[in-house]
Amino acid sequence: MDVRSQKLSVVFSTDCIKYPLTGIGRYAFELANELQRRTEKVDLTFIHGTRIRDSLAVASESAQSVQSLKRKLQKSKIVSEVYRLTFPVAKSIALKKYKDHIFHSPNYYLPPKVNHAVATFHDLSVFHWPQFHPAGRVHLMQKELRNTIKRASMLITDSDFTKNELMEFFGVESKNITVAPLACNANFHPRLKVDVESVLAYYKIKWRQFFLYTGTIEPRKNILTLLRAYDRLSLQEKRAYPLVISGYKGWENEALFKLFNKGESEGWLKYLGFVPGKDLPVLFSSATAFVFPSIYEGFGLPVLEAMASGTPVICSNATSLPEVVGNAALMHDPEDIETLTNYIKKMIDDSEIKSEMIKAGLAQSRNFSWSHCTDKTIEAYEQVARFI
To answer: Which of 5, 177, 255, 286 has the most C-beta neighbours closer than 10 Å?
Structure first.
């Protein structure tokens, strides 16, 4: 029988859907929502930890202390090892009665002895750039990602770049990897000045008079290069168009925050910390441009969110980012401070190029949708279903 005519029974792991709903958690949440709509094709069950659920729980923006504790525990090799050994086994036991289902982990990890398993790999930075992660996380992820490669019936990646990495680094065959590009939700769209004034007033920033970076404050995001490039502008330019940074503090950033303090004291940098999900799309749609000089990305969702918001993008030409932005962004080598400064100046001085980039970015962003991501994900499920 053609598997495309069969209804697929899927157990979907929701462990990564938690506060804050960004990155992988956002991907899992949006994909799960879309899969729930495909009732003619997918019979969906959820598992969170070892608990089976029939419906998708919504992530809460009220559990910051829990996530703060988790981040501290991730830095401990002992805690990571205990977690690595006990949690997957408990999940496997919970999944025993679903042996005829497809199990999908949207966040790398697969428990042992689970048949018909699919895992999404978002990047391989833990292997290529281990210095960009806390030691406890590297210890856990390197072991478990190797286990996932052995256990998976199919792998899903966000980009062709990550698919090629899996093929080259682990020798996975192309036929066993499906590329399902990410998308951004409908909250990211162009806005008028009148629609955003109250939010901008709250953060004390002006419409189209600031540059925006958003993301975790961590080494691979290359924020130090961004600060150095920004500091080359004249003081008048910097104060007229301050750099607004949003994101959790992450790790290995003590020196960086000293520079944040310097920029804030001089009046050209504003660090907002974590911004609630309802405000972030407003900031994206209000910026002069979005700057994202990251060294390594498995996809780079913020650049897509910026384009969909009608905001020009300046980003590095590294890893997967060219796939996402196409010809719609100004791209630079991650370490090229001078070019990055010139691009920032161009967004201040050249309204014609800025207008062209907005149009190109909106067109490029329409190439990505959660519906398409879900279609490709179902294709991966169908590959696995042939062997059930």
So the answer is: 286
